[in-house]
Write a structure and sequence with these properties.
single chain, alpha+beta, Creatine Amidinohydrolase, Chain A, domain 1, Creatine Amidinohydrolase, 2 domains, five-stranded mixed sheet, 13 helices, 14% strand
Amino acid sequence: MTSWQNQDLQQLQITHLEQLLTRTRTLLAEQGWNRLVIYSGHAHPHFADDQSAPHPGYGHFLHWTGLTGLSDSWLEITQDHPPRLFCYAPEDYWHATPTLPEGALAQIMRIEPIKARGWPLEQVAEVGSTVVVGDIESLSIPVEKSHCNPRSFVSALNALRIHKTAYEARCTLEASRLALMGHRAARDAFYQGGSEFDIHLAWQKGTQQSESDAPYHSIIGLNEHAGVLHYQHYQNQTPQTLNSLLIDAGVRYRGYCSDITRTWAALDQPRFAALINGLDQLQQKLTQEVKPGVDFVELHDKTHQGVALLLQASGLIKGQITTEAIVETGMTRAFFPHGLGHFLGTQVHDVGGLETASGQPVPPPQAHPALRLTHTLEAGMLLTIEPGLYFIDSLLASLRNGPMSQHLDWSLIEALAPCGGIRIEDNLWVTADGAENLTRASDHGLGVGQPEV
């Protein structure tokens, strides 16, 4: 266990806040501002309704505070004074009043409760050199519109979140540990014959996390549903035949997200289990290549080469065809249509993955439009590695009707298609000479494929 994993969490947070304050003040000076105000955001009611979706909090507000679910609150950062956190804590008998934070936050910043919604700062002379970021369009604030969410400043602020501190990695490690307790419970529920809804309940009980507190809607797909990349439902009836489970689910801890995927095969599906194990081996090879200086687009290309080799080794692709030809003709894209990974942080798909610090776009290559990360990796980056292999009718149709159809074993594809697909996803923190796999560090033998007997 490395030293940052053993350090006191509160001290790590103090160091994180001190570093963030220094970097933010430097950014303000570089861009000619004296004051930054970050709005937490607030829940938005559904159209023609008085109910709102859960409000997790604005990513930049969480970067400083980690206070998820806190609405209508503000953080002020200046060059000369300690940060001030204005927490909306009204006298309310309809809802529980938020508790004011203590610990590291109270040591670094002044915390002031506010009773009313809206702009909390006094009308100061410096308002002309104030920049405001957040969901403020519906609010009345004494700041010029051009000073609200200016693109160049927000892009630079996004860039401050790309390199994570040890505190942020520690929070993600804990989020991974809690998530894997849920993955273990979900796996057990699957092998006990549970429905998607049963597995969802097992996941929640295993993590002790409510659905509204989750960083994203958990993907729990049985059989063919495992081939729907962002499958969004929970069927409450168990299929007559259980073939597979794909669960993509994470936990939020102090504002930071884990994002983990595991795939399981029914005990009477040995060929699909072997395919899962093959993809897991590829995923582990890819994670071992994560280090500073690696071009993530090139690593994504290597993933397609690995998928091609796996398709050949499993017999899904047959005949005299090279690995290069399998990739170049687009065959692997029919089985692996998404990107290899993305930045991770206070948002599941964290900011900055497709732009420079100055806001210049760095789009994915035309052949891989779903790729969410185009950077060369650097120490401190936190990202996911998540190769997949799926049996998706609409994508396979282009192969079935094309010139490469002869190289595919369609009988084997049809035999495995009821299993839907596979994804294996871990969360990694890039270090000076490699990367720490925060997911496998908490795995404790959970594994993939089928449980060990």
